[in-house]
Protein 1
Amino acid sequence: MNSKKRILLKISGESLMGDSTYGLDVSKAKFIANEIKNIFAQKIEICLIIGGGNIYRGIKGAAEGIDRSTSDYMGMLATIMNALSMQSILETTGCPTRVQSAINMSQIAEPYIRRKAIRHLEKNRIVIFAAGTGNPFFSTDTAASLRASEMNCSVIIKATKVDGIYNSDPIKDTSAKFYSNISYSEVLNKDLKVMDSTAISLAKESKIPIIITNINKKNSILDAINGIGKFSKIS
């Protein structure tokens, strides 16, 4: 790895909805794109993964009677739509990007090729990894840990709707306990629903710390990278 800092940023599909109940809120997507631009301006190499929950949730579809594998593939297609949306918006802010898809879609995205992705990062392009791992039964959180390991990222940042890790939902429970620093094993043992267990285990094996911060607060991601503000760190 070169001397520049390389991060993987994981954003949930729900964060693109804004106040809507479905789909993509362009003003919210622009806010997130500007947050990413501020990180990019600090000469930090950025790998980006966006979930698909604003469009389609595989597990929910499976629960409603669609075959789980089929349902998960539909969820992967939703992540491709989000990746293309974010690519377009990021490029209007002046950030060069490339989308690489784990499912072959040669007309709209490059296939995922590790060495090519690294070359894009070295050429100061943001790489958006779409379609998860390309396999059903694996979440985009697990895809984030996998790609961060393959790209030799120094940290995974999961930008979510809360400030970090709590032992219960802080939006519903005002007495929820906040963890500023916690080990991978504690997250797994306490069954804290911050990322799925496969994602946590893979990050632990690869020794990549995970930072959880609030995507809705201006500069929160950049602040967390610099070790300031409120966030949680798993290591």
Protein 2
Amino acid sequence: MSPRRSLIPLAFALFVAGCSDEVGSPQSGVEPPLAQTPHLLRWAGSVPQFTAIDAHSSRGAGGVLLTAPPGGLSLNQYTATFLAVRGEQRSVQINYLSVTGDTSSPFLRLEGVDPAYVPGRGDLAPGDSVLITVTIDPYNIKVSLEPTGLQFDNPAQLHISYGGADGDLNGDGVVDDSDAYIESQLLGIWYREGAESAWTRIPAAQALSDKSFTSALQHFSDYAVSW
């Protein structure tokens, strides 16, 4: 490969520039903020629980990777891992685990993971593998995909549901018209490169029927459903 692709596509940079133009201008004498701070959606009720299925789509295999026990867990235990291999299409699906033990409601699907470049290692040759880690925030509807900065030749697909907010998208304890407006007009997927970086909105297709977004990912970082 040629020198590495920028981790922030040009479209994202143009989006941020457009937002900055709206917030402030040289004529106003006010410096525009570096980036908008989004409102991250919070899980409704108690700390959620999940199961995760590793699907090696090239083989049609699968298996349970993670089940969170009753009572809730700390952040570093909300983690599922799987091995991605250059030249193969692999995926993982994480489902909600209900109090009755039902695991049929999906929270996240990460599909078509075929890594091409890993920071610190460089370009991957066919057959090279890398351990992929998906970590769920137990308080906000947010996930971290690692290794941060891992890149693909062809985008992976991230499908993430926000149904766990239980309709209260502004966090005021009431589900009303304000939440409906946020869902239909403001809600989206945002990403950042790390805890010290600014959040940026990315293109995503919304499905109101199952309260989810799907986005094509060129690389790994933090992703959240926000407005």
